[in-house]
Records
---
Amino acid sequence: MKFTTTLAAAAALALGLGGSAIAQTKAGFIYVGPVGDLGWSYEHDQGRQAVVEAFGDAVETTYVESVPEGADAERVMTQMALGGADIIFTTSFGYMDPTLNVAAKFPNVKFEHATGYKRADNVSTYSARFYEGRHVIGLIAGRMTESNTVGYIASFPIPEVVRGINAAYLAAKSVNPDVQFKVVWVYTWFDPGKEADAANALIEQGADVIMQHTDSPAAMTIAEEKGIFAFGQASDMMQFGPTARLSSIIDNWGPYYVERVKAVMDGTWASVDTWDGIAPGMVEIGEFSDRIPADVQAEAQAASDAIAAGTLHPFTGPINKQDGSVWLAAGETADDGTLAGMNFYVEGVEGELPN
Amino acid sequence: MLRLEPRQQASSTMRWLTPILAVAITMVMGGFLFAAMGKDPFEAIKIIFLDPFFHETFGPYSRSQLMVKAGPLILIATGLSIGFRAGVWNIGAEGQFVMGAIAGGAVGLALYPAEGIWVLPLMTIAGALGGMAWAMIPAFLKIKFNTNEILVSLMLVYVAYNFLAAMVTGPLKSPDGFGFPESRSFTSVDSTHLPMIYEPLGMHAGVMVALALVIAAYVMMERHLLGFQIRLTGESPRAAKFAGVNPAIIVAVTLGISGALAGMAGLFEVTGPAGKLTTNFPVGYGFTAIIVAFLGRLNPIGIVLAGLLMALTYIGGELAQLSLGIPAAAISVFQGMMLFFLLAVDVFVNYRLVWKKEVK
């Protein structure tokens, strides 16, 4: 009988271990670029690592990188859900419909879609108010440009990107009435070759400050080569442009990811729409370069502080649309709904929005 | 010194063994690569090649995705192989894929929200014509001005990408899409939704059409005069001329067929798996299909197997990322090795290595 008891104990132990393995929370992450893009996907993976750091063995994370937006994304998400993921972070705009489709098939799995606008009972959306960061670097760009031409590498003509262009332009214009923005649309989030071509084209058109809304540090590298200015995008990118880099907009997803995984563990997860900015730290302004004069640094810091304090809104009237019609009256600030669907340039931005 | 000498006659058994050998060498070298990254090589190879079929949790779903992924590759590669056997190098199937999707998609959007089973066939025809028209550009330039079809067809891929971007931000943009660059969903309307015929194996209507066309291509190439003329042009252009084959017609026909099949594949992709026209729906099937065509020895049956193998490495590769954390780039290297070793083995099938003292 002793043998049976031992066996039973062993079985109980095995079950117990099995039980704890099941209790471990699984979090999956899907990235549109490689984690080595040192931009967008890199920062999301930093967020994943923050989750690992916060919960240790209580959480298991998996990720799949360079997943094209569309049919392939749907397959990868399904495989993750089948693999037992409790929460899946889908970190690119183009994953929106695939996320919704897969979420409908796996009602017990929680989904978190970055930068989208469609939600469901088990699908949350989250994004950062990048435009707050654009305002700060826009001020710096306006002060630093000598040719009065700022080049802007834009990915897709979606509201998030258009908002960034408008915010940066308005800020630059407020300190330098002669400033001009030249925008190149590259229709990709991550293609270092195309991004570099766009940067070169903008420099040939006279730009001496470059901003980009794409994921690789290619533009920074070109700026360093050509001896002009640029800003880190999504990540600090200091190592790619030690002299060219003026500052950066850094996405900090860690705290949000930790909070959401915690909610799954506690059973308190609910579908929400999160849009955080500088104040809660989801958007960070990278250290200012010594090449920025002290008064300009102070001005940019003050703007950042004012945005964090809620006393400054980057979109405060009077602002006209590109066609000259009134958008915001003097003193009026833009509401989130309009910002979320922004599909027009503000007055003064040159060129036509692909529409 | 070492030299390569052409063999008098390449062994025909070896020609068929080459792909299998190439896959085996890829597994071994890939195993070394994974081991060097600190991953268990046997586990990795098992996950990539066996788990999509047999894994108890992933298997049933992965099996259903294999044909979905292989379908467009097989369809495009079948068209390409016809041209390749005639020595007509259409490298721009990706562009024809995109233009087919736009042409067929535009017809569907113009008819929206028409009901009826005739809508999808009409879109398919428009898709084939769209792809064919795009392939006619390099065909025309080659026939008229003797331009190089490799360059022209390849460059037209990038034109097609930009045309797609212009279409989905302009005329084909969904009116309900909040200004985002995408068309209406084809899958939300029954008449434009590619029907699934047999779900467990992922057999949607497009896959069925692809397999039917593979058989048609086989019959044409092996049993039909046109197929003979195409093969003759590729193997011996001079003999073909003496036999009265008009090379201009061969160029037009082969580019036309490959363009039409690629266009059809594009239309099936947007009405099925992708669901709508966006700037992201082309994920490089047109380029991968070139590998599939060669891996399949430009033979329709071989192409079906090669297409499945390629799809397997994609799906298995994702599983390997998920469960072993192998980076996506390593999976791409693994896929690239397959073509590299195929070509390498091919060299030794056609040539032999001889050691010769240099004569001074």
---
Amino acid sequence: MVTVLGEELPWIDSVFQRAYPRIRGRYVATWLFVSGGGILFLAWPAQFLTLQPLWGPGAHDTRAFVVTMLCGVVITGVLMPWAALGPFRPIVRFLRGDPVDPADVWHAAVRQVPRVSMVSTTSYCLVGNIPLLLVVGGPRGFTLLDYLSGWLVACLITAPAGFFFVLIWEVAFRPVLREIQPLLPADFDPDKSWLTLARRSALASASAMAYTGVAVSSLVAATGDREIALAIAVLATLGSAATFGGVITALVSHSIFMRVDELKMALVRIGDGEPGVRVAVRAGDELDDAAMSLNRMAERLEADDAALRASRARLASVADGERQRMERDLRRRVLVRLQRIGAEVGEVEARLVDEPDLHKLSRRARESVAAAEVEIQRLARGVYPEELTVAGLEAALSATAERMAVPTVLRSPGVGRLDHARESAVYFCCNEALQNAAKHAGDTATATVTLAREQGRLRFEVADDGCGVESDAQGRGMDNMRDRVRAVGGDLTIAYRPGGGTTVDGWVPA
Amino acid sequence: MSTATAQRAGASRRAKVRPDALVDLVRARLGPWYFHGLVLATGFFVAAVSTPYQNLTQLPFWTSGFDRWWYVGVFAALATIAAPFAMAVILWRHRAVTAYLRGREADPVLVWRDCVTRLPATAAIVSTLWSGFTIGIGLIYVGHREQFTAWTYAGAYASEVLVTIGVVAFYLLIFELALLPVAREVAAQLPPDFDEHARVTGRRRLVLLNTAITFTVGCQASGLSMGFSQDGRAWIVALVTLGLVSTYVGAQLSLVSSSVTRPVDELSDALNTVASGRGSVRVPPTSGDEFDNVARAFNRMVDLMDHHASELRQSRARLIEVADGTRRGIERDLHDGAQQNLALVSMQIGQLESVCAAVPDVLPRVRVVRAELSAVVGEMRRLAHGIYPASLEAEGLASALRAAARESDVMVTLDVAVDVRWSHAVESAIYFCCWEVLDRANQADHPDVAVWIALREATGLAIVDLELQPGPEDEHTADLTLFLQDRLGAVGGTVVADTEGSGVVFRGQVPTW
């Protein structure tokens, strides 16, 4: 089975893909550490600073900042690992080389990511944002409604950041998925996921919008000056759209269209006749249906193709069998009895030596019987050469070469025997090619038949040094030869060199 | 090629996508004036809703609070004045699709472009002109009264433009959604080598739309929040952001489900159709994005597979044709050569016998020879018949089957209700199927084996029923079924095997054209 993956990795995927083999053993821990660090030292202080203008002027903000950071340390150091390590355990064990069900690993890398992110985001919203608001609200004399609105606004920044991490973690786990995909059972059927592509895309927009709206409004509140407010609004919006909005949507649209590209590549390769092409069934979203349909279709097409090939092979072998049977019947049921009759007529002739008229009559009858014998013998050989059944390809071809009108040399350094179907396919092709040579190559032509075993194949070549001109009859004969050889899994080519002869070159699996 | 199948298959799922149902409804109501209606509605909404709202959010940037609310009215009036020109530009640029909708002659390629690839450019042109006029004149009016500095002008203008970009993206999205059904209708009439891609692919479009809409949110939310005192500000920020998010996300969800879910569903349907062997389908490229590449790859694959399968079928048919030809040749050789020789021998032995009456010690021998010879001649005839009955070509299937039945050792009942001749390939395929069944019956070690052969014709089909009573063992039945399937399959026919009582019936059908 060939699992089709997108052709070229986008830069963000290739970053993770390159890091993956180097830190494989501690992959999950490393990224948890990096994400935790990013949140704690970048996102969390940034959120505090962004929201500060919105609370209005107040004292003790340094204390509030310290409290916030302490909450951040607790969540990032305790709650987040606690939420993540359990669900991601199958991945950790897989990467450590412990025996683990691939379906569990898949489940952890695909399904658990949104859950882990949701738990982490919730803990930042509850354990982080509520203490933060309590600390900053006290000195500013917040009412209950102020607390509520302040908390809502803070969560509008925290939640998009959480979704951002869903997307990043999905990219981070893709190298694991690439490794696990071939190990999944063939009938692996991921049930429907809530986080479909359409919803994912909507969530991406919502995140970018919510983050930008809140962040820019809050920053603008820092000033009462018209020009500065406008400048902040424009620049902060542009910055936020370019970074947060751009990155998030790029990730989402990448995750949608990467899989579309995979489908396309798979279709192209199936069309080109590559066997065993399948696409990975991924995340229980809209494209999984198409992926499963594609795999089903590929199986069906392969089965149809195999059935048709098998049918052709059977028909060819039935036709061979019939010829063999005809030959046997002609010999055993007709020729043998005819020989007996010939012997008896001979005896009758011997007894009639004294009577010239009768003797002459019986001699003529004996001669006619002998002629019939020769005729049937010739016929039987044409139907299916006895040598082919008894002694194999080389014997049959050398007998044929001797009888051919065109002088023929056989070169076959001990090719041995194959099964009936392949031997007779090769025999009849060579025979047909030699007959063509006798008919079309010209009077002075000679032919060479070469048999050779190489790389699990039996190669055969019939070359003449005649005029090398293609005729219609030869074209049809060529089709027939090719059908015969392809029916046993081989192939054949024919080359005409005007003035330089015709070469039929083919092979069958040996 | 049944393009319709794929479309029907997709249509079965369309009802689930709600915006599509709305589009269908509106289209049914407006009929030929669908596009005009769309443009008119857009003009009305821009002038009456989105321009006033947009400038309401910017108002606090210019003056403190919302006291001079009538500035908004100035912008709305300016938008209304510009609206007819903007609508005219849209209608002129998309005249192919209006012509198509009104039933006039239109080049499908142009209509498709109007619905898919030309929309972003139209949006850019129209919004630049329209909002340039409205925002430019409006801001000069406001700035004059509010003593704007050059920096204020620049900031206010930039903020307005950022908001406009998002609004335009929203309308663009609506237009794409509304024109998608038309694009799909036209796609079926596109030339087969049509290979045009939208420059704004699905990947880029998502990024562009989201960036654009983020511009709007940032500038609108911050503008509004400026208008409120410290107390209400957090509420305004939260509510405005949430409101904008939900409006836009709703539209975006429908767009994504239209531009992702539907092509995926269609593709799945087409793949399933191929997977279940219900004939070959094609998926028309409709949207100019990545899915069109998939559709093209799919169509090319189906073409190649069809070609490949028909090659194989032809190869199989040729094999049979050659094998049958060879048998016929052998039979002719037997008839013209060996059988003539034997006839001569028979005659000579007959003469010998008649003149040998005078030689008593030889006569019995000659008689033995003669008896043996006639046995050989009989054997020859039988053999020739098994190889290829001469009567099949000359007199047809019925006569050949009667001869085969006569020579068979088992009880054969023939029920042939056919008085036409079929093609040679069909007749010999059926004949050799019957012959094979007779042959197997002859070989069966059963005293009262019986064979029924029924042959009839029904509209373009040759129907042959072969009953073997009692049936052979299961593995032989399977083997025989395979043989019959191969033989009739090579001429496009089918066979099924049924057990009936202790016997087996093979029901075969072969197309006779």
